[in-house]
Amino acid sequence: MLALRQNTQGLDYSAYADALQQYVEIAPPASASSRLKLALLLTACGRADHPFVAAARAEDIGRQGVMSWIYGLHLLNNLPGTAGEIDQAVASLLSLQLADGGWAVMGAQSDADVTAMALQALAPTLANHSDAQAAADRALALLSAMQADTGDYRSMGTSNCESAAQVIIALCALGIDPLTDARFIKNGCSALDAMLRYQLEDNAFAHTVGNAKNNMATVQALSALIALKRFQAGQGSYYLLDALPAAQQAAAVGWKTWAIIGIAAFGILLTVILWFLKKRNYKNFILLWLICGALALALCLLRIESAANYYAPAPTAESSMGEVTLTIRCDTVKGLTDARYIPDSAVILPETSYKIAENATVYDVLVQAAKENQLQLDCRGTYVAGISHLYEFDFGNLSGWMYRVNGVFPDVGCGEYQLSDDDRIEWLYTCDLGRDLP
Fold first, then answer.
1. Which of 66, 203, 230, 347 could form a disulfide with 235 if both were Cys (CB 3.0 to 4.6 A apart)?
2. Global confidence as pTM
């Protein structure tokens, strides 16, 4: 949606905005960076005054490491009256810059994707932050050194479409032409040349050369192409939102907002009644508005989610195209608590084999395992918040579930990772964004 929003003038986003607004009011994700992305999209749709945007701005920026600072800064860059908050976000993001000049979600070695994404967020702030400009110069030098002779970039040790796309978006945001700047042309190949190597006959993009189309790769490639188009047309950064037509600026009001308005109106009515009944002791009014406030807060925190969001149909044996194994462990919290949800062995599910259908994902297998083994599973869409009553943030702001396939942590969500025969899946609980995992 953001790509369309920044590419085509005059489209009507109200239907999308209504659906997105309903989603964030009924079943918002728990991940801070995901919430900030949705807040940015609401802002892009002309719904910046929706309560979810204010809540994300107040509660989620910086709550979950580097990505929440990046998307928090994107949000702040598009909201009025955020100068002080931008200063804090810039300082916090700069404090996470690694010794080699870049950024990473985990570890001491920079990642091309995360470095490029940090530059995208910092780009609009460079004129007012000399330290940010110096940091950007270091990061650009690193990205230049990281680029392969094919123009490619690696993430998690693998050349891929998304890494090249993110670098293109970053360079365009900084006013650097990725097609001509000598620092980013290797052996005659630019990052665009590299990215186009992943395009398929149907114009979708693959994550890696020779693989099937991948939704995330396609969306990020589209974003990069539009960022480049905007750069060439002098239209500004991909993440700095163009103004919407006035007709689309009005924010629709969701059911939670109407309910809170109703609570406030009821409180005002009772206040007037108490006044005319001469029950004017200030304690009566304090109690009344404490009750109204508690009801409004409870309503904001209420989440309603259908079973379909938790479970998906398991593949049948007739449609099986192979077999994978899955194990679920929480060794990092073994012995830290006597909670009955943490087994003494730290093994929630021992290595178990599952048949998979064509195009099955890591998420599909996890749901199948949860159903067959009666494991509690809390998912927000395909984002895994809790397994067997062990939740993200239970052991600190950097704790949560991560998955690994064949010993490697993929750089896509579990709902995006398509499995192959004989893949070995591990779901592991971390207290430090994976740095504490073997």
1. 230
2. 0.64
Q: Do 89 and 57 contact (CB within 8 A), yes or no? A: no
Q: pLDDT of 146-166, one tens digit each?
A: 999 999 999 878 899 999 999
Q: For residue 231, what is the enclosing H or E element? A: helix 215-232
Q: What is the DSSP string of 46-105?
A: T-TTSHHHHHHHHHTTTTTSHHHHHHHHHHHTTSSS-HHHHHHHHHHHHHT--TTS---S
Lowest mean pLDDT among 11-25, 125-139, 240-254, 319-333: 240-254
CA–CA gap between residue 288 and residue 261 (Å, rounded)? 15
Instruction: From residue 108, give the alpha-carbon distance in Å to each of 44, 98, 101, 214, 413.
Output: 34, 6, 11, 29, 22
Contacts from 6-14 at CB under 8 Å and sequence distance 24+? 6/226, 6/227, 6/230, 6/238, 6/241, 6/242, 7/226, 7/229, 7/230, 9/242, 10/245, 12/248, 13/44, 13/45, 13/46, 13/244, 13/248, 14/45, 14/248, 14/252
Cα–Cα distance, 237 to 171 (Å, whole number): 10
